[in-house]
Design goal:
The chain is of the alpha/beta class and about 350 residues long. About 20% of the residues lie in helices and about 30% in strands. The chain is globular and about 75 Å long.
Length: about 350
Amino acid sequence: MRTLIPSSRLPLAHLAMFGWMPSPLKVWAYRTFLGYKIGRGVKIAPGGVVIGRDVTLADHVEIGLLAIVQGRSITIGRHSSIGTMSYVSCERIEIGEDARIREQVYVGGPTLPESRFVLGSRTIILQLANINATKPVIIGDDTGIGGHCLIFTHGAWLNVLDGYQATYEPVTLGKSVWLPWRVFVMPGSTIGDGAVIGANSLVAGAIPPCSLAVGTPAKVIRQAPAFPRTVSPEEKAALVKTIVSEFERFAVYKEVTVAEAAPFRTYARNGKTWRLLWVHADDAAGVASFTASGDTVLSETALDNATRQDLRRRGAYWLDLAGRTRSPSGSPLTEELALFLGRYGIRLPRDE
């Protein structure tokens, strides 16, 4: 029997009309017939669809094979992606830039007028995570959600008239939070900025910022200022050296030729070469004067605004570890190194 409010869980009509289209045709059709605001370089794979009344997809957004994104309003920031066979359905969907939703992630559940899913910039949700956003789920910038994690904003099944509980409460995760695999977050929970939850833990209630919490229910076992520990300048320099060394080992394994041509390091693949200028601590003066179009600067000391503007004018790119910023776009070398830095938790906001 038909219900008063039709279900849109599986949008068969939209899939039949748009799902089969190749990406360029689908982007054109979305712009032309549905009025979506779609930026440059957007890719929507076969079977991937985006369904909403007010849709904005910024530059270089990618929607994977058989991925479904649907809501009343949808905003996805530049360079963000939703992986193969993921399902994201909520009244309001707000995703920042450089966010990654990997394969077979589920975001959905019963909806209310206030249902809202907010995923900050430079975040990641790994495979097979399940997020119920009946009440708002707010996830801050630079936060990571491990595979098989469960985040619920409602819990109800047994009859409340028989004394059982029905819970509907929002969930908020702050900035730079890390949930490893198989963490269960209960309705009404809040996790503060910089907190880490142990794998297989259950969060119920409030976890303070900059703390480590483990167990069922999760209890704080370490907290600021002891967590996270302070890293000395010498330790930072040694860490960056190790990361660059590991990146080059990985690049060589992937058939990239790495060489040194002072003051640059060069990376060559498929007949093309890119240059990296590695700037150590307190050595950023005049750095832009060495660069040309397409070069990448990796800096361990903060680049001032004038230097960044000079690099931009020259067509060079940068990854500023101390200043916590990067150029708005980059060469293949810039993008590959930025991805590799993410393996060590180093994520840099794109400069405006």
